[in-house]
């Protein structure tokens, strides 16, 4: 049974059930700085009528920053990551809105011992090898088609189309009263054997799932 833990882009929905207890420790050393950075980003995104909400470029700069922090607060299965010095691959599919922006965001950064690499996939290119896939654009039929082809592969999926998490995406950006928020589909992550830190769940506006992690 799907449980809804907080209300978000569906105003008026009640809180149902307790928040899941965190069982993860692998990224705990990264959490204080990451949580603070995400909180600052959320403050910027929640300012009404801000330039961030008005400018497409600024919107994607902030989304790129979120994508980096999402990657810090997610645990992939070991066999999906490979040796510790192998890059963590952040991929995009769709419009070129993030071209150059994501590269600038992650430049000089790494997660643990892993360097970061960006790939902008061409139309119909296989996302095999990606660890995170941001499906750019608001075409929900196209997003649904891409998600269906992944077949529960251990790839963290992020999107911005309507009903993204309802279609099986894991993290979906949404717009509420000109403010950018994000929702999480915990069940979709669990099906792909991806663990999402409870600290990231706390920052989401809505968490959909059965509440069991790892």
Briefly characterize the structure.
It is built from eight helices and eleven strands.
Task: Provide mean pLDDT, rounded.
Answer: 79
Biggest beta sheet attributes = 9 strands, mixed
Query: What overall geometry do the principal axes of the alpha carbons give?
Result: globular
Question: What is the total tally of β strands?
Answer: 11
Output the radius of gyration. Answer: 16 Å
Low confidence ranges: 1-8, 10-31, 46-54
Can you identify the CATH superfamily?
A: Response regulator
Q: Approximately how much beta-strand content do the residues carry?
A: 15-25%
* CATH architectural arrangement: 3-Layer(aba) Sandwich
**CATH third-level topology:** Rossmann fold
Quickly count the helices: 8
Name of the top-level CATH class: Alpha Beta
Helix content: 25-40%
Helix and strand run: EHHHEHEHEEEHEEEHEHE
- The assigned structural class equals alpha/beta
Order of strands across the main sheet: 1-11-9-8-7-6-3-5-4
**How far apart are the first and last residues' alpha carbons, in Å?**
18 Å
Write the layout of secondary structure elements.
Layout: E1 3-4, H1 31-46, H2 51-54, H3 56-72, E2 74-75, H4 78-81, E3 88-93, H5 101-106, E4 110-111, E5 114-121, E6 132-135, H6 140-150, E7 156-159, E8 171-176, E9 179-185, H7 186-191, E10 195-196, H8 198-203, E11 206-209
Parallel strand pairs: 3-5, 3-6, 6-7, 7-8, 9-11
Antiparallel strand pairs: 1-11, 2-10, 4-5, 8-9
Helix pairs in contact: 1-3
